[in-house]
Design goal:
Layout lengths: L6 H20 L6 E5 L2 E5 L9 E4 L8 H14 L4 E4 L6 H9 L3 E11 L12 E5 L3 H14 L7 H7 L3 H4 L4 E8 L2 E11 L2 E9 L8 H15 L5 E4 L5 H7 L2 E11 L8
Parallel strand pairs: 3-4, 9-10
Antiparallel strand pairs: 1-2, 2-3, 4-11, 5-10, 5-11, 6-7, 7-8, 8-9
Helix pairs in contact: 4-5
């Protein structure tokens, strides 16, 4: 018997999938480091870029003060002389979020967490588009070309995006569903789904500048999400950018939470 999934369960599974994805992704880049302790996950990437170094809180009902939490996280990154991204949960981390706001920690954004409850029926293939499932190094190269260009608009330097997809043997795996949409013969749009904890999370959705406005991202994301459902995902979740949110809503995704993202210095004096 398949049990129904409550909103509380969805929140927990979405959080676990998101953290699992970034832990897995860190392994795509040689010499990265993942540290887990006290319901905290810390990722020190081999890349010296705050957007690749993460701190996640997974505690539910923690009695630790925001000051103590941040001091512990900052101690980890200060030893490595790195600024980092503090990825928080709108439903569970309000005390830490307020502490960051009060201390004027830089808020990058507050992405909506969105969920698709069932496969998308219907839909069309944009004219001139062909979807390819990524299964080998050559196809991964096309995926990398798209995200390298597309994510510069989200302040990811070219060399950062490239680094995630430079080692096919590290990236490709049976728990990932990856697709590239070719438009007029060129790699133009991407989406990836990672299956974990009974659900799937959508990541690395992007479209190159000259191919935007043609429905390619919607098509690619729809196909990847439906494939995840076929592989047994109970729900499909994602964190939407400002560009993607209106598209996802039209597709049938609904918002279930928010994910504030802060960039922090590792200096202990910042949050005191």
């Amino acid at each position: 018997m398949k049990h129904s999934l409550s909103e509380a369960d969805l929140l927990r599974l979405a959080d676990l999938n998101r953290v699992e994805f970034w832990c897995d992704s860190s392994d795509w880049i040689p010499n990265s480091e993942v540290f887990k302790a006290q319901d905290t996950v810390l990722i020190n990437s081999a890349l010296d870029f705050p957007g690749c170094n993460f701190a996640f809180n997974l505690a539910v009902g923690s009695h630790e003060s925001p000051e103590d939490f941040l001091s512990r996280v900052k101690s980890f990154f200060s030893q490595r002389k790195r600024a980092f991204s503090l990825q928080l949960r709108g439903r569970h981390d309000q005390a830490i979020i307020q502490h960051c706001r009060d201390n004027k920690v830089f808020l990058v954004g507050e992405s909506p967490g969105m969920v698709l409850d069932e496969p998308i029926k219907g839909g069309t293939t944009p004219a001139g588009a062909k979807l390819v499932w990524v299964q080998n190094e050559k196809e991964l190269q096309g995926f990398k070309e798209v995200v390298t260009e597309a994510y510069q608009d989200l302040a990811f330097p070219k060399e950062v995006s490239e680094s995630y997809f430079s080692h096919a043997r590290r990236v490709l795996g049976p728990h990932l569903v990856m697709a590239v949409v070719f438009f007029q013969g060129e790699p133009s749009s991407t989406a990836l789904a990672m299956l974990s904890h009974g659900i799937a999370g959508i990541y690395w959705v992007g479209t190159v500048n000259k191919a935007r406005g043609k429905g390619l991202a919607e098509y690619c994301t729809r196909q990847v999400g439906n494939a995840a459902f076929e592989l047994g995902a109970r729900k499909v979740v994602l964190q939407a950018s400002q560009f993607g949110e209106p598209i996802y809503r039209k597709m049938g995704y609904r918002e279930f939470t928010r994910y504030p993202w802060f960039i922090c210095s590792s200096k202990q004096t910042q949050a005191r």
